[in-house]
Amino acid sequence: MSKYSDQNSSRQAFDILEEQIKALIETCAYLKEENRLLRTQQERLQEERLALMEKNQTARSRVGAIITRLKSLEANT
User: Fold this and answer.
1) Which spans in the chain are helix H?
2) Average per-residue pLDDT in the chain?
3) In whole angstroms, what is the distance from residue 9 CA to residue 23 CA?
4) Taking the model in full, what pTM does it have?
């Protein structure tokens, strides 16, 4: 009976370990996908940020040009 009990205990321990390994594999796959999605999102946000910075610079230039024209018109009057 002791030998059977030891085999049963070993089998249970093996089954538990197998389930833990399966859970780790699933977690790893989930994290890989999440990481891929986050990297994609980060790249998109960086592109969006760059586009907004360019728009901001364009707006600054246009405002600067408008101010220059207004000062010129003011000086001429």
Assistant:
1) 2-76
2) 94
3) 21
4) 0.67
> 1-25 burial by CB neighbour count: b if 16+ within 10 A, else e?
eeeeeeeeeeeeeeeeeeeeeeeee
State the Cα–Cα distance between residues 35 and 29, nearest whole angstrom: 10
- The span from the CA of 66 to the CA of 59, in Å, is 10
Structure tokens, 22: 């399966």
Residue 49 has what pLDDT? 98
Distance in angstroms (rounded) separating the CA atoms of residues 32 and 67? 52
Average pLDDT of span 29-38 = 98
Q: How far is CA 1 from CA 9, 13, 14, 15, 75, in A?
A: 12, 18, 20, 21, 108
Distance CA 17, CA 11 (A): 10
